[in-house]
């Protein structure tokens, strides 16, 4: 039916939008990770220059130079790896959009939409309901075919000496074929489609509840990473670097603090990616659009 086709097209659009959003979030997260690693690389490069000056001035130990240079090479390798992952994500998104993409712009963080009352209007539910209605109509037609068929007609004839008018009534009785098998199959199909529609509705209700909880949890985790953990890691790294400049801390302590800061940045980026993915999925599941 037309309603069923429209519902299936809407369901397909939702699935395509969900896949595009997943690819977009992956590309955006890849860009952010590369930016974070480049910032870390600049900081380690500045630290390496500081260590070399201290050694040249006789204020530091020569062994500190290879240690900080090894750390710098490690960060550069991570930048190269993250750049490759970013390019791959952009290429996948470009395949879906039909052309090469040099980068994506950050979009507003998806909110937490209200999903109350959204299940009956969901494309998957509408498609299932349309299929059930079509199967029910076919079952009704099959049941009616078991009853006698009545046909009424009229005729008129004219000859030289007389004119005649009359009518006819035809009754078809399915004496030898009551179509019991066809009726049972049609009724079974209608019952099956009705159960599938109900199962689809219940499945979506559960999916809505899970998606809403996952979005809320991901937002809370992202806020903790961004507001509590990352600022402390940044302050610790700055404090240790100042202490190192004063000659009261070793280069290994500074490197460890930088590694902790890098992991905190990665965790913050991962939690932001998870938030965007889960909350975006909830928006799409509820029938909304992501700009």
Structure description:
The protein has 5 helices and 2 strands; from the N terminus they run αααββαα. Helix 3 packs antiparallel against helix 4. A two-stranded antiparallel sheet has the order 1-2. The chain has 291 residues and is mostly helical. A hairpin with a 4-residue loop joins strand 1 and strand 2. The model has no long low-confidence stretch (mean pLDDT 80). The radius of gyration is 35 Å and the shape is rod-shaped.
* CA-CA gap between termini: 32 Å
Largest sheet: 2 strands, antiparallel
What is the count of β-strands?
2
- Mean pLDDT comes to 80
Q: Assess the beta-strand content as a share of residues.
A: 5-15%
In brief:
This protein is mostly helical and 291 residues long.
Summary tags:
291 residues, mainly alpha, two-stranded antiparallel sheet, 2 strands
Tell me the layout of helices and strands.
Elements: H1 2-56, H2 64-97, H3 123-144, E1 149-158, E2 163-172, H4 180-245, H5 251-285
Antiparallel strand pairs: 1-2
Helix pairs in contact: 1-2, 1-3, 1-5, 3-4, 4-5
């Amino acid at each position: 039916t037309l309603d069923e086709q429209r519902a299936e097209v809407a369901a397909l659009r939702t699935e395509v939008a969900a896949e595009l959003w997943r690819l977009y979030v992956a590309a955006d997260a890849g860009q952010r990770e590369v930016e974070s690693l480049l910032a870390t690389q600049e900081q380690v490069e500045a630290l390496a220059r500081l260590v070399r000056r201290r050694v040249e001035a006789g204020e530091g130990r020569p062994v500190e130079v290879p240690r900080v240079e090894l750390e710098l090479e490690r960060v550069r390798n991570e930048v190269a790896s993250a750049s490759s992952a970013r390019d791959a994500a952009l290429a996948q998104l470009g395949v879906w959009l039909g052309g090469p993409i040099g980068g994506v712009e950050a979009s507003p963080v998806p909110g937490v939409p209200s999903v109350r009352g959204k299940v009956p209007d969901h494309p998957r539910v509408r498609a299932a309901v349309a299929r059930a209605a079509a199967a029910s109509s076919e079952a009704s037609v099959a049941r009616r075919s078991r009853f006698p068929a009545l046909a009424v007609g009229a005729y008129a004839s004219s000859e030289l000496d007389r004119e005649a008018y009359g009518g006819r009534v035809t009754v078809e009785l399915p004496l030898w074929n009551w179509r019991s098998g066809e009726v049972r199959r049609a009724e079974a199909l209608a019952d099956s489609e009705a159960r599938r529609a109900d199962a689809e509705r219940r499945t979506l209700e559960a999916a809505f509840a899970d998606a809403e909880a996952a979005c809320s949890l991901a937002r809370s985790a992202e806020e903790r990473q961004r507001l509590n953990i990352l600022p402390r890691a940044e302050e610790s790294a700055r404090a240790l670097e100042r202490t190192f400049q004063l000659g009261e801390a070793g280069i290994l302590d500074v490197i460890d603090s930088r590694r902790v800061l890098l992991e905190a940045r990665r965790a913050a980026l991962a939690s932001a990616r998870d938030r965007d993915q889960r909350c975006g999925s909830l928006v799409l599941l509820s029938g909304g659009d992501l700009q």
